[in-house]
Amino acid sequence: YMNNRHGLQDVLKSKTALRTIAHSLYSGANDQTLMVAMELMAAVCLVPPDGHRMTLEAFSIMKTKKGERRRWAKLIDLLRTTKAVKVQVAAFTFVNAIVNSPDDLDFRVHLRNELIPLGLPHVIAAIRPLVHDDLERQVMWFN
């Protein structure tokens, strides 16, 4: 259902769907669930006109609910701690959707600057030796 435009539009119509999907990153979910959640959120980021804004809003709400200081702390923590390449690829795909979706260059730089102080460059340096084509492609796209 979520693999088509109609399914994504239904998620965008819901007031809680994206928050529920974002919450899965905090729930101790298994790797498959984490991967699917991040792939879904990356896809929603690309749905005009409000997918990107709604995804950012869902993470802002989760940040507040979980008492975090920074919106993307959990995402970077997952990248830092997971050893599952499929989760790393999905997380970087999501990062790239967040950062590269907006047309406004200043906003893209702003979003990128939210991620960098959380240690994303260190995460990239740590996983870079792990050779995997999809992961390398996503890291190169971010850089």
What features would you describe in this structure?
71% of the residues lie in helices and 0% in strands. By secondary structure, the chain is an all-alpha fold. The radius of gyration is 14 Å and the shape is globular. The model has no long low-confidence stretch (mean pLDDT 90).
Would you spell out the secondary-structure blueprint of this structure?
Blueprint: H1 5-13, H2 17-23, H3 31-45, H4 51-66, H5 73-81, H6 85-100, H7 105-115, H8 120-127, H9 133-142
Helix pairs in contact: 2-4, 3-4, 3-6, 6-9
Report the major sheet: none
Q: What is the structural class?
A: mainly alpha
Helix content bin? over 70%
Give the terminus-to-terminus CA distance: 33 Å
State the helix count: 9
Stretches where pLDDT is under 50 for at least 5 consecutive residues are none
Mean pLDDT across all amino acids: 90
Q: How are helices and strands ordered from N to C?
A: HHHHHHHHH
Principal-axis shape equals: globular
How many runs of DSSP E, i.e. beta strands?
A: 0
As a whole number of angstroms, the C-alpha radius of gyration is 14 Å
Strand content: under 5%
Task: Give keywords.
single chain, 143 residues, mainly alpha, 71% helix
Provide a quick synopsis of the model.
Helices cover 71% and strands 0% of the residues.
